[in-house]
User: Fold these one by one.
Assistant:
Number 1:
Amino acid sequence: MKFYLISDNTDTLMGMRLAGIEGVVAHEKDEVISVLDRAMKDKDVAIILMTEKLINLCRERVYELKLNCPKPLIVEISDRHGTSDVTGTISGYVNEAIGIKI
């Protein structure tokens, strides 16, 4: 079982490749849906990682797959264009766990 990345950005793809995760870069909605459908049919893929921007681009299709297909798992990841505050989240976890404010 393996991970597969669908990204809108080559930097994210290159970083994931360093960790041994293969994937593709896609930008257009039709292209993303086509790649996603192909990855869903691959029996070796257990987890599909998708950047936040691409999830937003084809949200209806992603939610349809999440609701109707038990495998593979589709996981949204943030990249440099994402709106998630990763630093704030990590700081919050550290503060809750050991009581130190960073």
Number 2:
Amino acid sequence: MRLALFQPDIPQNVGAAIRLSACFRVPLDIIEPCAFPVSDKSLKRASLDYGPLAQISRHDSWSSFLQHDARNAGRLVLFTTRGATRLDDFVFQSGDTLLFGQESVGAPAQVHACAQARVIIPISAGARSLNLSVSAGVALFQGLRATGGLPQDPARP
């Protein structure tokens, strides 16, 4: 399983995704351009010292991401407020790439067209959406749990 962020707007969300990548040992794809320099201080603050533990691939465009060898290993699963399948009804596969769009505008039509599945995380009526890094954590945990990919020996204090 992989985690992918399409042209993220908020460095703190990318920092949190780096932590998810490190803690769950899941590769993270960052599809540029980002709305901030990847060297941004707030990104480093949010990711703390997890950067070296994360498996990060940066792609300079959507097309370069689609051509990446690891991208072709499984399905592209887009998480979107316009999803067709609820998270709790979705059947994950271990090779899935979980893709999240820009915080400000979501994913454009060309990204929707490339996705093999579009999933929505159910939330209360009247709420617009979850934060991107929260959504990524919820989805990634559910996907890893469903495919037996959670860490076997969780870290203990």
Number 3:
Amino acid sequence: MERLVLSILVHNSAGVLSRVSGLFSRRGYNIDSLSVGTTNTDGVSRITVVAQGDHQILEQIEKQLRKLEDVIEIFALADKEAVFRELMLIKVEATHKTRADIVAIVDIFRAKIVDVSPESLVIEVTGDSTKINGLLAMLDGFNIVEIVRTGLSGISRGLNNLDINSEEGQ
């Protein structure tokens, strides 16, 4: 199974996300990760979607997305040519006995404690999936109360510009 990360520029209008995600569900494709946000161009949003499958299925996904009216441009982000990050918030039960151990683990992963209460800590970690999964593995022995995890975001390395105003996007 191959992984495909697509950076999709779309018109920022009602129903766009529904149409993009609907394309996946109608064809029985699974979305591993999905994140959406506005860009520096008025009226344009970027959807980053991650899917897995064999080469033929991934190629079909990209072709079908290009047919959607709201899609302006699609860029495939290759692992070695892009930077990928996720954000995760983790609420961990923390007693006086466990608090120091949790803080030590957080420091090792260069994560941050963003909220402290008498009975819990909220940890923020940003990084690639390996880093985030590593932190989760180290916290496995503690009582993780809640996890909130964003979808993958990606941007090309160097001066490559995946935008409608760039030479590549025109």
